[in-house]
Write a structure and sequence with these properties.
The structure holds two protein chains of two kinds. Chain A is an alpha+beta fold. Helix content of chain A is about 55%, strand content about 15%. In chain A, α1 packs across α11.
Chain lengths: ~375, ~220
Amino acid sequence: MWIVFANAKKRKARLVMTVAGIAIGVATLFALLASSAGIQRGLEREIGGLGAHILLLPVGCPYTLTLALMQGTDTLTYIPQNRLTDVRAVSNVRLAAPVVVGRVRVNDEMTPLYGATDEILHLKRWGIPRLDGAVVGSDAASRLGLSVGSRITLSFYAQREMDVIRVLPQTGGRDDTFVFVPLEIAQSVLALADEVSAVLVQTENVDRVTQTRQTLGRLAHLQAVPPSEVFDMLVGLFGSMASTLMLITGVAIVVGVLTTMNTMTMAVYERRTEIGLLRAVGATRGDVFRLFVAESLWVSLVAGVLGVGVGYAVTQLLPRTTGFGLSAAPHFSPSYIGICLLVAAGVGSVAAVYPAWMAARMEPIQALRAL
Amino acid sequence: MRIELHNVSKAYGRGQGRFWALRNVSLTVGNGTHLAIVGPSGSGKSTLLHLLGCLDVPTEGEVVLDGVFRASLSDREVSLIRRTRMGFVFQQYYLNDSMTALQNVLLPLELARVADRRSKAIEALRWVGLEHKLGALPSQMSGGEQQRVAIARAVARRPALVLADEPTGNLDSENGNKVLEVLHALRDERGTGLVLVTHDDRVAARATHVVRVRDGRLE
């Protein structure tokens, strides 16, 4: 190994440039893997956080409406509240929790508001028997300076006051930003008499969700959407963006391979004398081949480690939310480091094969005469 | 180690530009022989040495290594013969300038994965009088010292034959004499065969056998 290190020291500027070329590709790959996984996990958490087997939404684009529900923005279309009776009458519906969402002023600061009945307590584990006050997400509490017992003023179309009964622990999801209040309070402030933004449905028998969804979907003025379908669509949407970025990363990696191959080929020409000497002292063609591959592999692995570090740093600079306001905190897994190091090693190995082969087939005296 | 050349010729280039560096040479280098190859510049001395050392292949004729036709050996087998039985010293030293003296000497031992290679490399450097320069880079040594490192590299594995191509060609007389002393000690103290290319008759005078090359032919 020391022979590899000694040779690498020889041309420091070139070494730095080669390492940088590979490291950039690896850093991009690492950042992309961590970001994509972060977005996917964020979506999983948000949609899982709804706590429903089926979402009943007003008529309209189900994905836009689901995103609005998760972000706490006005859905702009609504479900008549009287549909709840029909919903609850459907076989296999164990629980139907109506919710209202919208942005209102809370103590004069625009904040996402989430109105719900006590049924929401079966879906979200808040540790309170009744929703008879304001439950505040951790970020909202911190931003608005609220704690249990604080008095808040909600205002938009109407104004209402109430006490904070619970501050939720941090979840890392959108719930952290909401202020949850009883349904009628939210309806009053948002001027939504007898209308709700959505209904979260839990079923008795999860195996019969598809049938229940079909039955619910036949009810007028609403559509029944399984959260998994929304999740798959959103993951697909982000996935297609990630695929495009992955393609660009792939191109960067191929460029890395070609750059390294070019550098190694030049190095073989420049080091003909050294190769000749190696052959003179008894190195076989295989020894020379292995030496060049080992050098390239070592450089690539150094670049890989550096690339993972840079990629990690880059992910720290990326925005923590997507354009939809959903959490996009990067997720790190040891497997990403493994993948990146494998890619780097692959770059090094593939790039070295041709130059190493060229070096190995040089006749000793031809190589020595190069001086 | 015994090397025989039978009617060996070596040409470079093709067609009209073909140039015969060596023509119809027959020569035997026996065990422990001290042979000097002399002749003017461009006469084919180095080509002859390269053929003896299996660094090059003849265009015509046969090279026989310890009774085995070189042409019947694979490239790997020839490499292993160079590794285990031969040592080379060149006019330009060919030291790796990013390696210390010790590392340069270690290089062939490392390739051969010899046991106790570090101590063998140090012993070789001590033998050429450079035990105090183990950590020195070539740029920190004189030409004579660099050539002695190259000799240490050639002899560290205690080869049967050392082939030296104008080893004093780049050195002043004082350093040249030191290098020659080391090479002669190799023959006298270890019984190692020595083939020395030189155009200096005084150097050749110390050899047991001398061959003169002129225009690619032995005189």
